[in-house]
Amino acid sequence: MITVYVILGIIIVLLIIFIVTYNRLVNAHNQMKNAWAQVDVQLKRRHDLIPNLVETVKGYMQHERQTLESVTNARNVAQAASRASVADRAKAEGALGGALARLLIVVESYPNLKANQSFLALQQELTNTENNIGSTRQSYNDMVLMCNNLYQMFPSNIVARIFGYRTEEFFEVKLAEERAAPKVGFA
CATH number, domain at 138? Predict the structure, then answer.
């Protein structure tokens, strides 16, 4: 009779551990999805600001058509990648960030544009958005790290495998030229 109680006790303890582990996995996964949604909001905000920035700059930069087109094209590619994998999205957003950096470098040659209040307001909004993207990307990557640890560490890896949880991709810049800070020259 005691053996039955011991076995029943072990089963109950294992069931409780299983339930607690499953709930931790679900919680972590949902937090990671929420963190990605916050990144997505900031990326959309960036995409929405770019046409206004390009239109403001167009009137001043008649000879910089290629720079403006590269920003517009990079924005379109980034928007099209909104349903792609995290790695593809990071690549597209990195290219967009590089195009924006090149645009802001070219702006240095146009003192009237740099003094334009609309441009200055848009530039400040874009700077704030870029800072928010960095912050939300860090939060997302922190959640990915936590989830990946849960998915790979014992005993939660067993429960994760049972319910089909797989390691997630970090949202990171992989190309060296995307990591480099733009060089601004004041001539």
Answer: 1.20.1440.20
**Alpha carbon distance 151, 154 (integer Å):** 8
Tell me which of 30 and 70 has the higher pLDDT: 30
Lowest mean pLDDT among 21-30, 32-41, 109-118, 125-134: 109-118
CA dist 58 and 110 (Å) reads 11
The verdict on residue 187 lying in a domain is no
How far apart CA 146 and CA 144 sit, in angstroms, is: 5
With respect to residue 64, please indicate whether it lies within any of the assigned structural domains: yes
Higher pLDDT, 181 or 97: 97
User: What does the pLDDT look like over 28-61, one tens digit per residue?
Assistant: 999 999 999 999 999 999 999 888 888 888 777 7
Domain, as residue range, for 100: 2-179
Give whole-number Cα distances, 160 to 12, 21, 69, 156, 167, in Å: 20, 9, 46, 6, 10
| Domain presence at residue 62 | yes
Single-letter amino acid, residue 18: F
> Is 37 within 8 Å of 127 (Cβ atoms)?
no
Alpha-carbon distance of 34 to 114, in angstroms, equals 37
| Tally of structural domains, the chain | 1
